[in-house]
């Protein structure tokens, strides 16, 4: 608990906004899959952190440079995303949301347990990047690593939007998310398109996972559930299926989280983030950018 | 022997947890927050017997009422959304409760030692049964009296008008509304009843385990809660009981030889079950077939 100090508050909000970009990426992943299939992929955050673990292994065993670590994380998480699609979504009847949800929760515990077994459940240090770089902006400082996280997130989002809105693949994805029957009648292979969506979301998640680990400095299986819950909160606050909503909500949750951390300490921080969701459920149940018609 | 009695107690407690999700699922709502109500029941009843030194029965009932009250409060905002959004809202609620007990520290001296919830170290002194010299048999009977009471109450409710109303809302909300059923009232009532049942389960759990901490009440426990009625089907309360015996008695105990790898297998089993039998292992159709097979057997 600190005093009310204007410069410090601005600094806190700024750091939070930069870190919030990782939540935005996780939120985008959830929202992409929800938009495409109308289902929640609960394995997502676990798969993202799983990707980060593979990236960390690349760093530890072959001393790969930062860029390669991120690429490996993204690729690994994309592969896990594809496997998650095959095991938890592909063969389950398309209108049975409950079964897909349960199966993906099973997948979440499965990935989590594999991570716990390979690391003996202990946290591992993740290489920090640009930790000693610090930009001065008047009385405020901008941490180099957070700025790097932010830049990578913007690049990843831009890449995703490019694929979605400027390629045939993206056209097919959007067609399936709007009307899957009509898309099928136009000759689009729905299963293939959904699988591509999962891989795209997975690539994004791997980057987000590695970014989270780089910004926090450690990777631990204890992060999985909080990251899942925060990703889901970001998705709901932003409006299910809305990419701009996920970005705004992610940055907002990041900033507010840091403010709560400043005033109430690390143990109580997440409680207030969860309360934030209930505030939204009462006053704006369909999120910032969600449509008034409920989709479930 | 006491090991098996412990298992029987655990099956009873998990049946209560599963039934709390069952009531809500009758109205077509899926909640991943049942672990939160279970935690509220556990901590409240524990605080009442340890700090306020009440006997077990009033403590248990008050604990269940507190859990029901919070279920009622959560019901209103959470039930404005449905389906997957409700799943997210209830996960958030469950995690909120867990973090609340993670932070809760309330230590008071009793008989020369400090007792009460001690944030991260958990709540270690819930020794009512030991202090009053209850035998394992008596504890087991006590647990199962509540399980049977709740099961009979739910079974009876299912045969009354209330059951028809709950199922009507679960089958088709629009049709239910058009015959004059108040959707919000029905859903909040189901949520409150679910909270009450989970609260009883939590209170019993705290006293049989003598120790609770925030790590007991994770999303994993909430997943167990909904997986019982999903596997057991919604045709009757017996399905939930069968599913609990199957998961806790056969799978969890039977896989004990796997040691740490057991949890990995649990994840895989959920995935396999959902792929092979997406609408539950003992769904209505399976139940009908079993029934027909049983009656054929009797005739022949």
CA-CA gap between termini of chain B? 40 Å
- CATH architecture title of chain A: Orthogonal Bundle
Classify the beta-strand content of chain B into a percent band.
under 5%
Q: In total, how many domains does the architecture of chain A comprise?
A: 1
Main β-sheet description of chain A: 2 strands, antiparallel
Q: Number of helix segments of chain B?
A: 13
Largest sheet of chain B, described in full? Answer: 2 strands, antiparallel
Q: Return the structural class of chain B.
A: mainly alpha
Structural class of chain A: mainly alpha
Q: Averaging pLDDT over every residue of chain A, what do you get?
A: 86
**CATH topology description of chain A:** ABC transporter involved in vitamin B12 uptake, BtuC
Spans of at least 5 consecutive residues with low confidence of chain A: 292-296
Helix content of chain A: over 70%
- The rounded Rg of chain A comes to 19 Å
How much strand content do the residues of chain A show?
Answer: under 5%
Distance between the termini of chain A: 41 Å
Average pLDDT taken over every residue of chain B: 87
